[in-house]
Amino acid sequence: MSSMIKGIAASAGIAIAKSFRLEHPDLTVEKQTISDKDAEIKRFEEAINQSKDELEVIKNRANEELGEDKAAIFSAHLLVLSDPELLNPIKDKISSESVNAEFALQEVANMFITMFEGMDNEYMAERAADIRDVTKRVLAHLLGVTISNPSMISEEVIIIAEDLTPSDTAQLNRKYVKGFTTDIGGRTSHSAIMARSMEIPAVVGTKAVTSTIQNGVMVIVDGLDGDVIVDPSEEVLAQYRQKKEQYEAQKAEWAKLKNEKTVTSDGEHVELAANIGTPEDVKGVLENGGEAIGLYRTEFLYMGRDQLPTEEEQFDAYKTVLEKMEGKPVVVRTLDIGGDKELPYLNLPKELNPFLGFRAIRLCLEEQDIFRTQLRALLRASTFGNLKIMFPMIATLDEFRQAKAILMEEKEKLVASGTAVSDSIEIGIMVEIPSTAVLADQFAKEVDFFSIGTNDLIQYTMAADRMNERVSYLYQPYSPSILRLVSMVIEAAHKEGKWAGMCGEMAGDTIAIPILLGLGLDEFSMSATSILPARTQIKKLSKAEIASNKEKILSMSTTEEVVEFIKANYMN
Ligand code: PEP
Ligand code: MG
């Protein structure tokens, strides 16, 4: 029997495929005293053998699908599972202390991990990562739970998950993952943002998909209207295939504007840029007629792996993006880790309020090795295109000054060592903390540009967690409070002859676009798939006419009033 689940439309498009449940099982281990030591050791050995069999299968598949390079990691894992130096101490612990296999495994593995990580040696850090991965696999067998591996999916599927971490999302293989749907999350959670840049249809915040959908069931994800249809009848399937075709036709219509500049009906040019998470996303930017990259979220380079990316790896990624963009502007944001973007290998303590905690520039100013490595990679890549650098989560001028001083120090060192560095890198900040928006007139004297990060600016202004669907009604981009802040930032920039862009999701929102145009925003950076619809919309609007209503809009008192006015005057 077909059924429909409602959620939040997070990434446009229609996907139809069989379901694949992505599970993150609880691997918490408790210490237990056991009476039959031999049986416990046997149970441990069985779990090792099951893990080996499983790894052999994964390794062979990885070899075929991803190549030898990627498969090598699984050979390393297999070696760990045959290493007596790891296995014997675990068995000894089971017999000498009469403890359960799970506990003995975790204790011994943790001891090796801590020891290897403390050696400050890349090779040993990799071994620690191997042991961590392998331990999880064996633990899952001992506990009788399943771990799913999204990177190994090899047929067309729709992912069903409670939540997808950004790192899960980064590992999804676009060839096979046709769509996804989650219980939790909102339009601005990072898995939703990534789905849009990967052009994978998605519906999030459904509250119900994991409790309703089993593995292998036919599912439709309607990312246009936010619906998930489970086990559709032939009739419903036909209906959605038609809707999919219509959407494709609409996309073809938009595509006609691909090579055009974005000019309003009264002849004003605004820049339509794209947000990306990985170098692979550049393809979609160019296909969708992006005039620039307004936000490269570099943190995804640090995710879905076990250790920090090296300077060389980063240099390659930045250079690739700059070269592919062929001289068009590329705004790279320095590492913005924290909030919902975790890096387990940094072993940072859990915080009560991660969105208000030790994150982004705060972390980079403290962990300067990490920051300086990234800045060097960026500076070295700067000669391959039109690079602009911006710092995330700036709350005070002092943070900006410190970050800029470190950047300048690294630049001087590179230049002194004979490395070419571009002389025209603009340095800007994200405006996503209300204190910075309010003080924009002061910041504007020192920065080259602003990029307004409304995803965070709205969550901090409204004090409403962007990940929490119960307070998602407070995500109100058209609230006059937000519009006034945005207007202040744009005016402050212009007063100092600087430009102001926006890279939060609001920049691609059809109701917000006319308002932002009237407020004088210079650059709109959005998911690549929103660019052509936005260009179509902007070409019909007169910037001067909307600007003449600026004071009227800013003096409205509610979101509803703003929406009503925009709909009545600037939508169709
Ligand atoms: C924002 O906060 O608006 C933004 C663009 O950054 P992120 O979504 O990565 O926090
Ligand atoms: Mg942000």
UniProtKB/TrEMBL annotation:
Biological process annotations from GO: phosphoenolpyruvate-dependent sugar phosphotransferase system
Any one Pfam family match given in the protein's UniProt record, by short name: PEP-utilisers_N
Localization annotation: Cytoplasm
Reaction(s) catalysed (UniProt annotation): L-histidyl-[protein] + phosphoenolpyruvate = N(pros)-phospho-L-histidyl-[protein] + pyruvate
InterPro entries: PEP-util_enz_mobile_dom, PEP-utilizing_PTS_enzyme, PEP_util_AS, PEP_util_C, PEP_util_CS, Phosphohistidine_dom_sf, PTS_EI, PTS_EI-like
Domain PEP-utilising enzyme mobile: start-end pairs: 154-226
Coiled-coil intervals, chain numbering: 34-68, 230-260
Domain Phosphotransferase system enzyme I N-terminal: 6-127
Name the record gives this protein: Phosphoenolpyruvate-protein phosphotransferase
Source organism of the structure: Bacillus timonensis
Record lineage: Bacteria, Bacillati, Bacillota, Bacilli, Bacillales
